[in-house]
């Protein structure tokens, strides 16, 4: 909770300032550093859940599960605007927020799959919501366009035809989310070097 409060520190408004001019701005750099740490924490929590899936369900290798994956409807949030070659901060931030929203809902699958780890899943969902809020606040402070997603119309939780498909679906939700977080982390780190 203290981390969430620290990350909600008020930011000096920088309305309309071009992003390249913010590279030396201390508030923007502080935002990036804090949220790099926050993203690293979330990645660690996802990795912990991946280890639980591997240890308890014996689902560890993605290659072995590719055939089953074809039968599953697992969302993979796009982050093409966050790659260095096509990088655009405004759309990258928006894609990170949209992806966090998708994975936030998908984690209900993990909570149902691993009821003994519901506390970790709930902490992860809270951290994701806080990271999304931090990014939205920073976008507003920078004068960038933001989209606020209604909480009552979240994406539906994936459904599965069997318990095994539920297990494999949980595996791929975590694997996709981990890749998403790695790209988001690299994008935030890239901004620190502009």
TrEMBL record:
Taxonomic lineage from the root: Eukaryota, Metazoa, Chordata, Craniata, Vertebrata
Main location: secreted
Family to which the UniProt record says this protein belongs: Belongs to the IL-6 superfamily.
Location in or out of the cell: Secreted
Alphabetic keyword roster: Disulfide bond, Glycoprotein, Growth factor, Secreted, Signal
A GO BP entry: positive regulation of myeloid cell differentiation
InterPro entries: 4_helix_cytokine-like_core (IPR009079), GCSF/MGF (IPR040117), IL-6/GCSF/MGF (IPR030474), IL6/GCSF/MGF_CS (IPR030473)
GO molecular function per UniProt: cytokine activity; granulocyte colony-stimulating factor receptor binding; growth factor activity
GO cellular component: extracellular region
Signal peptide: 1-16
The protein's name: MGF factor
Stretches that traverse the bilayer: none
């Amino acid at each position: 909770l203290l981390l969430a409060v620290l990350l909600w520190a008020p930011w000096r408004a920088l309305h309309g300032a071009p992003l390249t001019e913010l590279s030396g701005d201390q508030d923007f750099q502080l935002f990036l550093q804090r949220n790099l740490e926050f993203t690293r924490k979330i990645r660690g929590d996802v990795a912990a859940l991946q280890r639980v899936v591997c240890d308890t369900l014996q689902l560890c290798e993605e290659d072995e599960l590719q055939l089953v994956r074809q039968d599953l409807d697992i969302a993979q949030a796009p982050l093409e605007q966050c790659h260095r070659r096509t990088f655009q901060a405004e759309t990258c931030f928006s894609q990170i927020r949209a992806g966090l929203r998708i994975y936030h809902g998908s984690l209900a699958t993990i909570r149902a799959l691993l009821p003994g780890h519901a506390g970790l899943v709930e902490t992860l969902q809270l951290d994701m919501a806080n990271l999304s809020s931090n990014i939205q606040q920073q976008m507003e402070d920078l004068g960038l366009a933001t989209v606020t997603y209604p909480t009552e119309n979240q994406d539906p939780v994936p459904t599965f035809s069997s318990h095994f498909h539920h297990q494999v679906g949980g595996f791929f939700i975590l694997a996709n989310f981990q890749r998403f977080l790695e790209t988001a982390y690299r994008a935030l780190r890239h901004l620190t070097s502009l």
